[in-house]
């Protein structure tokens, strides 16, 4: 029976980051992971492979639509689907092998198999039992099921199956207009599929700033995606070739149906905690099936911690990573900290959508006096040179103090641009601080500065 200071259960972004940081801080650390490769859902069947397909499909679309505008004459591009899948897999392999290398470099033991907490301070993996002073649950999440819809990962798929289809479907029905559904829907739309998105709510991307939502939906519709909003899916009926998604409109209870070759179910995710033995050791769960923790990531059982998608909060890889770092520092006797008010979110469509902090709707609901600085990418020279002038930067600041309260971007490189605002908010910056900071020209980042200037005397280029 080997002894460790820390055993982390789960090798995804939260788990592997926690394990590496624990080892760096001098703790003898092991990480339990049952997959053949490290990296969890994110690196294997989530964030990384989806970004590879997004990138490839964007270049395919650009070659067919934008190259001629830039004076580039090329033959009509063709899709080599096996080749694209191979590119995707090479991206996955490079990243997962990189984590394995980092484990060896930092002397983190990989306990291969599925872990169960046998008792406080004991983790069983296969036939072996290991002791640890502290146990960290970082088991991530899995796709949420939808009543009346049976997943077979061939015709009716989750995001996992959608990444490895046999080919590009002629018709794709997407149930759920959240991040995963829109990202994967946009991949196949660019590759030629007819994509129909069915959403229960009356808007896409719930929780996103409404002004961004309106622009976002218009741009996706312009790209060929069709939306059926306010629709409650009743089931998916298999057919000779594909399936029919049946729904009822919430406003009048009228029925409808969408025929598709492939149906993607992207109605959210739920914590993956089955098989951990939490009931037996007394670890409390919330009503939503999340591991209940306090503000130090401690569960109801002494010595057992939890983080990432397994606990409350946004299911984001970088949120899990931040918590992984914080838990490791806490276990090493330091003061781990996560600023939950400054966690960005990004939708990796084209254009990208990124946000941090409060939305206008949230500020209004809270009765907070605020001001808005907005700048369109049509006024940004670099964005226009990319043929990516759609969208805008929207900065929200306190009406009295000018402190930045939130930022919402739809446009080129939004996922990169939002980092500047995150840093500003982490240091309690005012919009004027961003406005007075020199930004390189020509860059898309100048749009952030212009939005900050618009919070004061006005933008220069709008």
Please summarize what this structure is.
The chain is of the alpha/beta class. The chain is built from 14 helices and 22 strands.
List its salient traits.
single chain; 462 residues; alpha/beta; seven-stranded mixed beta sheet; five-stranded parallel beta sheet; 14 helices; globular
Description:
With 462 residues, the protein is α/β, with parallel strands linked by helices. The protein contains 14 helices and 22 strands. The strands form five sheets. Strands 1, 2, 3, 4, 5, 6 and 17 form a seven-stranded mixed beta sheet that branches. It is globular and about 65 Å long.
| Count of separate DSSP helical elements | 14
The termini sit apart by 68 Å
Mean pLDDT: 97
Number of strands: 22
Rough outline: globular
């Amino acid at each position: 029976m080997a002894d460790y200071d820390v055993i982390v259960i789960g090798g995804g972004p939260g788990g592997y980051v926690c394990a590496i940081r624990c080892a760096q801080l001098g703790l003898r650390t092991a990480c339990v992971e049952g997959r053949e490769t490290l990296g969890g859902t994110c690196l294997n069947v989530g964030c990384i492979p989806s970004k590879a397909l997004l990138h490839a499909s964007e270049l395919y679309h650009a070659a067919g639509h934008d190259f001629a505008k830039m004076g580039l004459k090329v033959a009509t591009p063709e899709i080599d689907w096996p080749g694209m899948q191979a590119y995707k897999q090479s991206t996955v392999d490079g990243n997962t092998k990189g984590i394995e290398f980092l484990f060896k470099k930092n002397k983190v033991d990989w306990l291969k198999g599925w872990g169960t907490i046998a008792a406080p301070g004991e983790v069983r993996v296969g036939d072996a039992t290991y002791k640890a002073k502290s146990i960290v649950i970082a088991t991530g999440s899995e796709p949420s099921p939808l009543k009346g819809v049976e997943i077979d990962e061939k015709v009716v798929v989750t995001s996992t199956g959608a990444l490895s289809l046999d080919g590009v479907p002629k018709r794709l029905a997407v149930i759920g207009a959240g991040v995963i559904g829109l990202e994967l829907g946009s991949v196949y739309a660019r590759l030629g599929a007819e994509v129909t998105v069915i959403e229960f709510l009356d808007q896409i991307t719930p929780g996103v700033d409404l002004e961004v939502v309106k622009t976002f939906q218009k741009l996706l519709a312009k790209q060929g995606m069709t939306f059926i909003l306010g629709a409650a899916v009743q089931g998916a009926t298999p057919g000779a070739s594909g399936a029919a998604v049946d729904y009822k409109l919430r406003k009048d209870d009228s029925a409808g149906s969408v025929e598709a070759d492939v149906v993607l179910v992207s109605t959210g995710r739920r914590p993956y905690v089955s098989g951990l033995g939490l009931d037996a050791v007394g670890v409390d769960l919330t009503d939503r099936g999340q591991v209940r923790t306090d503000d130090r990531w401690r569960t109801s059982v002494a010595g057992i911690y939890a983080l990432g998608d397994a606990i409350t909060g946004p299911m984001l890889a970088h949120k899990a990573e931040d918590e992984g770092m914080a838990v490791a520092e806490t276990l090493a006797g330091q003061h781990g900290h996560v600023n939950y008010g400054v966690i960005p979110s990004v939708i990796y469509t084209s254009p990208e959508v990124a946000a941090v902090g409060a939305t206008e709707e949230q500020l209004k609901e809270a009765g907070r006096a605020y001001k808005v600085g907005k700048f369109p990418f049509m006024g940004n020279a670099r964005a226009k040179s990319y043929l990516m002038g759609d969208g805008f930067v929207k900065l929200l600041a306190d009406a009295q103090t000018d402190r930045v309260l939130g930022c919402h971007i739809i446009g080129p490189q939004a996922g990169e641009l939002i980092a500047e605002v995150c840093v500003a908010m982490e240091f309690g910056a005012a919009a004027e601080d961003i406005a007075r900071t020199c930004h390189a020209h020509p860059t898309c980042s100048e749009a952030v500065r212009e939005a900050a200037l618009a919070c004061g005397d006005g933008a220069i280029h709008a």
